[in-house]
Write a structure and sequence with these properties.
It is found in: Cell membrane. The chain crosses the membrane at residues 7-25, 37-60, 93-122. It comes from Brachybacterium avium. The protein has helices spanning 2-29, 38-62, 91-108, 110-128. It is mainly alpha-helical. Helix 1 (2-29) runs antiparallel to helix 2 (38-62) and helix 3 (91-108) runs antiparallel to helix 4. The longest helix has 28 residues, at 2-29. It is flat and about 55 Å long. The relative contact order is 0.10.
């Protein structure tokens, strides 16, 4: 896990540098200025790398050493509980439905996008607050 975190930190920095250089070059040499698809996409790649690196770093602080960090480790040592998940949760279904409606709304009609936002907000809030209310409340 430690190596994976380092790799994603490096990827995040790399894509950030590439985004800066790409933005500068397209601003300088394109007639319409900064290219509006590639530049945000490379920035999103950088953000994704940083988010995964941060998640792995926080998991590393919580669990000191993973089986993948041991050079003599076996695959079977990684068996067991991988996290805390609520059983029978409907929240991912609502969130996925909202995301699907949002993507469909961009292609078919913006009024569908509004319904997708409503579904997505409901799914996200119910997933975040899942352990605060109901059967699995702490």
């Amino acid at each position: 896990m430690r190596t994976s975190a380092k790799i994603f930190w490096i990827l995040g920095v790399f894509f950030l540098v590439v985004a800066i250089v790409y933005g500068f070059l397209t601003y300088r040499y394109e007639p319409l200025g900064i290219e509006t698809v590639g530049f945000p996409a490379v920035i999103a790649l950088s953000g994704l790398g940083f988010m995964i690196a941060m998640a792995l770093t926080l998991a590393l602080r919580k669990h000191d050493q993973d089986a993948s960090d041991d050079l003599e480790g076996e695959v079977s040592e990684s068996a067991g509980v991988q996290g805390s998940f609520a059983p029978y949760s409907w929240a991912p279904l609502w969130l996925a439905t909202g995301a699907a409606l949002c993507f469909l709304g961009v292609a078919a009609g913006w009024w569908i996008f509004a319904f997708g936002i409503l579904f997505a907000i409901y799914g996200l809030l119910s997933w975040v607050l899942e352990f605060s209310t109901g059967q699995h409340a702490h």
